[in-house]
Amino acid sequence: MPEPRPVRRGPEKAEPVAPVRPDAKMEALLKEAFAGFGAAFGYAVDEVTVTAPRERIVEACRLAKDDPRLRFDYLRCLAVTEYGDYFQAAYLLFSTALGHKAMLKTNAPKDDAVIPSVMGVWRGADWHEREGAELFGVTFAGHPDLKHLLLFDEFSGKYPMRKDFPFEETVDWTPENDRPWSRLPQEGS
Amino acid sequence: MAGERGVETVDMLLNMGPQHPSTHGVFRMILKVDGERVEDAEAVVGYLHRGSEKLCERENYRQIITLFDRLDYISNFNNELVFCLAAEKLMGIEAPERAQYIRTIMCELNRISSHMMFYGAYGTDVGVFATAFMYGFREREVIQQVFEAVSGARMMHSYIRVGGVAQEVPADFVPRVRAVLSGLKRGIEECDRLLTRNEIFLGRTRGIGVLSAQDAIDYGCSGPVLRASGVPLDVRAAEPYLVYDRFTFDIPLGKSGDCWDRYWVRMEEMRQSISIIEQALTQMPEGAIQTPVAKFGFVKPPKGDAYVRAENPRGDFGVYLVSEGKETPYRVKIRAPSFCNLMALRQMVRGSYLADAVVILGSLDIVLGEVDR
Amino acid sequence: MEIKVTPDRLWKGESLLHKSGAPGVITGKSDELIAMARKSSLWPLTFGLACCAIEMISTYMAHHDLDRFGIVTWPSPRQSDVMIVAGTVVKKMAEPIKLLYEQMPSPKWVIAMGSCATCGGPYTRSYSVVMGVDKIIPVDIYVPGCPPRPESLMDALIKLQDKIMREGKTPRA
To answer: Looking at the domain assignment, is residue B25 inside a domain?
Structure first.
C-alpha cells in the first residue's frame, strides 16, 4: 500500500464570514436584560443572538416574553441544528407589540441531548419541539407529548436529520420486501 | 357518562383522512365526538413528509430552488423568493431593482392565484360544491398563463434565482398583466357576489371557529389567520423586503377571528395585491435583472446563519439558513406558516359541531406540502 | 354472444363495432360493449397527494373540462374505477394508498401522475419517499412531467380509454 502523500497547503486564508448589519440598540437592550445569565452575544447578519446556558433557557425565554422592554410574545421558529459535538436550538423571537426581533440560542452536548421545553412560555413551540425530537433525537424535557409528528414508529431510534444518517437510503419497497424501512441502518453503525 | 337528560352517552372516535375530500390533501384528523359535538381533535400530519430539509443539505443552492417550489405548491414564487433572499442575505448582495419589481409582481400575482384556490376549496367545504371551484379556477387559469409566459412553467417555475430572476419578462408583459388585472377585478367582484354575503355561507361561517388574538399570537399563527383575529402583523409592512416600502396598501383586519373573517381577509388581500401590482407596473424601471452571481450560478455564501421571512399567501414563511462556506448549505430549517396555523386547529375545533370542523379546517387554508416538508 | 343495443346517438369513430343494417342500431361483442360502457364513464377517486393534485383539479375544471370524456370525480373508493396517484408517495402514506386500492371494486385502473408517482422525481432517494407508486400497486399509465400539464393528464385518460377498449377486444385467456 503506497504511503499517503502529504497534502500541499497554500497560505492560510481567512475564512469569509457573512456580513453583519449591527443593531446597536437591540444589542444594548439584550445585554442589559440578560446580564445575569452568563450569556454570549453575537449576530446572525442583522439579528442579535443571545446564547444562554440550557439550564436557564426556560427562565431566559420567560424573561424575553415578560420583560416590558422586550415583550417577545411571538415565537417565529424553533430550529434545531447539529454542529460538531453539540445540538443547537435557536428560538427566533418577534414582538408583535414593539416590532423588533432577536434570536435566543442554547446548546446541548450530543451525549446528553436534553433541552428544557419552552411550551409553557409559547404554546406554539409544541410541534417545533416534536419535530426537533424526532428528526434530531433531542429530548425536550417537560414537553407533555413528545411522540412522532412527521415520521412514524418505524423510525424510532433513527434520526434522519443527523449528519451521520446516510443520504442515499437504498432499501426500497417491493411487494416481497414489505416495510423495508424497518431495516434502515441503525444509529451509529 | 350521563348526558343532560340522564341518558348514557359514549364518546366516539372518528377518523377523518388521510384520504378525505375536505382535508385539502393528505391530512388526518382524529375527532373525539359526543353526538354532533367535537370534544377533542388530534391532528396527524406527516403523510407528505418528503425530507426536503435533508435533501437541501445534499443539493447546491441552485438545485434547492426546485425543492422550495414544491413546498407550498400553490404559492411557488413566494417560496423561491424566501430561499433566494436568505442566500442573498448571507452573501450580502441584493438583486437589481428591476428584478425586485419583477419578483414583487410575480409574488403578488401568486398570492391572488393562491387565494383563488382557497376560494374554490372553501366554497366546496361549506357546500357550494363545484361552483366556487369553477369561479376560482377561471381566474387562476388566466394567472397561470401569465406565469407560463414569464417563466415557462405553469406551476414549478424556478424563476427567482439567487441574485435576480432567471430571464427577462416577455415584451408584452406590462400590457398583458394590466389586462389580466382588469379581468381579475371583475372576477373578484363576481366571486364576492356569489359567496360573501350569501345567507347560507354566513350561517356556516359567522361565529364559527373563533380564535382570539391572544391565542393566535401564542400559537405562532400568521398571515390571514392572524390578521382575521385583529392583529395587524404583515411582514410586508412590519419588516419590508423587496420594494414593499415603496407601495401604499392596506392590511385588512378581521374583528372577531371567526371563519368568515378569515375568508374576508383573503378576499380583501386580493384587492390589495391588485393595487400593489398596479403600482409596481407603473414604477418598474428598466435595467439589469441579474447580478453576476445569478448569471454564472456561482453561489457560495460565507460562513454564518441567517433567518429570512416573507409574507406568503398563507402567512409568515421563514427560512433559517446555516452556511459553512460550501456549495451546499449546512442546515435549512423551513418555518412553514401552515405548520404553525395548524397547531391552533385543536383549540378552534373543540366544542364545535362536527360539520363545522371541516369549515374551520378549510378556513386555515393549509397546504400539506409545507406542513410536512 | 351477439347482443344489440340502440344508442341515442350513433356511436362514431369506433372501428371495432360494426353497424348492422338498421339505422341507430349497432351490434358488437358483449365484451366490447361492456368495455365501451366502462371507458365512457370513468370515475376517478378524488384523491390528491401533492403538487400534481392542483394540476389535476385544473384539469377537472371548466377550462379543460374532463366531463366531456364522461370522467367525473368520486370521493369514495367503493364506487370509483380509476385512481389517479397525483403526487409524492411517502412511506407513511404507502399503506393508506394500498388500502384505498384494495377497496376499489374491479375492474380498476391506476394512473401514476407526475415524476414523483412514477419514480420518486425530485425526491429520489429521500429517506421517507417510496420510489414510485408502482412499488406498491400496479400502474396502467405513467404520465411524465413535474407536474404534468392538464393536457398530459387528458392524454393519459384517453390512452386509458384506448387500453380499456383493447382489453375488451382481446379474448380473455
So the answer is: no
